[in-house]
Amino acid sequence: MKSSSSQSRYVKVYKEGNHIGRKVNLFAFNNYESLVAALSHMFDTTIRLDGDGNSSVSRNHHTLKYLDKDGYWMVAGDISWNNFLSRAQRLSINSPRNP
């Protein structure tokens, strides 16, 4: 996480099967990897990103999706980090059986 930031952009994060979400400040992170590491710890689960920065669909790992400004659910990592910061409205951690 970044040590200090004057900007903030809070979005809700929900894990599939949990009805209670949490808020995270996207500007507190430097990249997808730091966001995924924090969410994995926060929700006590494993979320994978492959080498290209895209969420991997795996039997043992959750995937991260985001609701964009147009109302579509997209796989996190499909656009640059800076573009993601401006487009993401909500995050969803999906179970391995329902990517």
From TrEMBL:
Keywords: Auxin signaling pathway, Nucleus, Repressor, Transcription, Transcription regulation
Location(s), subcellular: Nucleus
Nucleus listed as a keyword: yes
Any Pfam family matching the protein: AUX_IAA
Domain of life, per lineage: Eukaryota
GO biological process: auxin-activated signaling pathway; regulation of DNA-templated transcription
Subunit structure: Homodimers and heterodimers.
Descriptive protein name: Auxin-responsive protein
A GO CC term assigned to this protein in UniProt: nucleus
Limits of the PB1 domain: 8-99
InterPro entries: AUX/IAA_dom (IPR033389), AUX_IAA (IPR003311), PB1-like (IPR053793)
Function: Aux/IAA proteins are short-lived transcriptional factors that function as repressors of early auxin response genes at low auxin concentrations.
Primary location group: nucleus
Family (UniProt): Belongs to the Aux/IAA family.
